[in-house]
Design goal:
The protein has 84 residues and is mainly β. Helices cover 0% and strands 40% of the residues. The protein is built from no helices and six strands. The strands form two sheets. A four-stranded antiparallel β-sheet has the order 3-2-1-6, with no helix packed on it. A two-stranded antiparallel sheet has the order 4-5. The protein is elongated and about 55 Å long. The two termini are 30 Å apart.
């Protein structure tokens, strides 16, 4: 991960959404701290994999880290000279 520019945001699992269809997985709705109000919730499949390969599910209220990273070729330097 050190090779790619990244940021980490804290998040909280707001709710677990059961699927109405048996062949679709349940979702975890995560509120991302620091995001705009209208866009702070993301929904992901509620399946995580442990180091040993076991699958686990998030619980409502769980604290999580949301990591955003990009290839260096997909980023531009920020102009920090114009900031106060």
């Amino acid at each position: 991960m050190a090779d790619k520019p990244n940021t980490v945001r804290a998040g909280t699992v707001q709710k677990i959404i059961k699927s109405p269809l048996p062949d679709e997985p349940e979702k975890a709705e995560i509120a991302v701290e620091g995001a705009d109000d209208l866009y702070k919730e993301i929904r992901i499949e509620n399946t995580l994999t442990k180091e040993n390969g076991d699958e686990v599910a998030l619980k409502e209220g769980a604290q999580v880290d949301v990591i955003i990273e990009a290839d260096p070729k997909d980023t531009d330097p920020k102009d920090t000279a114009s900031k106060p």
